[in-house]
Specification:
The chain is α+β, with helices and mostly antiparallel strands. It has 11 helices and 12 strands. α3 packs across α11 and α4 crosses α8.
């Protein structure tokens, strides 16, 4: 700032600015203008915001056995038994978000104590709680995408699977074509399809990974061949992740694209580390409480 007063010229500068450094208005704030120590300080500041998008993409998380309870909602009370993966949350915020958004009442047959049918009623999902035998590492999006890229480059069958645009499209029900992750990946796959010599960039493969992350639980929707195909490919990916020391990955769809601001939803695949804890039917009272909390979070933008 330049100020003229009583025929004297004063240069006050910009608060916090040092001579020869363009680190504030009127100059653009650019990472290239920061020193290595300043960039490190910015990174550390971002890490403090535990569930920011920045952290979800870039920083792995370690879940401890003495503090973590992995919980999931499902109409099947045995969902976490005899399976290779399941969705889970471990924060109170996500506990309420998922209970409010995804816990829908469905019809069921009601019986008396003697097993006689009393007609049809409704019920909500089961709350399935699990603990850990040992600490579990959750891979950030960047870590997962990096391992995905290595598998993509060394396994031809996996490569063919994740770059088949038509096959990937079939794994999205019609109304899901609007899903941003699918649209982004489709552009990359179309580019590769039109020009066989095109070599996708790391950013290209990261968006393809996001689509793969979305279809990981696909069971074929009645088509056993498609279901087996998906299971085979995700098993390869889970194997690579385990060998790298991870037991779960970030659920990219809900963490980054989801409109209900999930904090840390994950896909658990280290089933040998999972210990069933408790299972019970959720109640309308708990659903109502979660809905109030969810509405409050949306109103406050958190």
């Amino acid at each position: 700032m330049i100020q003229i007063c009583m025929n004297e010229l004063y240069h006050h500068g910009i608060l916090g600015q040092k001579w020869g450094k363009r680190n504030g208005p009127p100059y653009p704030l650019s990472g290239g203008d920061y020193t290595p120590s300043e960039r490190e300080a910015i990174s550390e500041e971002r890490k403090k915001k535990k569930y920011s998008i920045y952290n979800k993409k870039h920083f792995d998380n370690v879940l401890s056995t003495d503090k973590t309870k992995l919980t999931t909602l499902n109409y099947n009370r045995d969902r976490t038994k005899n399976t290779d993966m399941f969705y889970a949350v471990y924060t109170k915020h996500d506990f309420n978000q998922y209970n409010a958004v995804f816990n829908k009442a469905i019809p069921r047959e009601i019986y008396d104590e003697e097993g006689n049918s009393l007609g049809t009623g409704t019920y909500l999902k089961y709350r399935i709680n699990n603990t850990l035998k040992k600490d579990m590492k959750v891979a950030s999006e960047d870590t997962s995408a990096d391992i995905f890229m290595k598998l993509y480059k060394k396994d031809r069958d996996f490569y063919n699977f994740v770059t088949d645009k038509n096959r990937m499209r079939d794994y999205f029900v019609k109304e899901k074509y609007r899903f941003k992750g699918y649209r982004e990946a489709r552009k990359v796959l179309e580019k590769m399809e039109k020009d066989p010599s095109y070599i996708p960039t790391g950013d290209d493969l990261q968006v393809v990974y996001r689509m793969f992350n979305y279809v990981i639980p696909y069971d074929g929707a009645g088509d056993s061949r498609k279901g087996k195909d998906m299971q085979t490919q995700r098993a390869k990916f889970f194997k690579e992740m385990k060998e790298a020391g991870y037991g779960a990955v970030l659920d990219t769809n809900d963490a980054i694209y989801g409109g209900f601001k999930a904090e840390a939803p994950i896909i658990v695949f280290d089933m040998e580390n999972i210990v069933p804890d408790s299972t019970y039917l959720t109640s309308t009272k708990s659903k109502r409480f979660s809905s109030i909390a969810y509405t409050g979070h949306r109103y406050l933008g958190i």
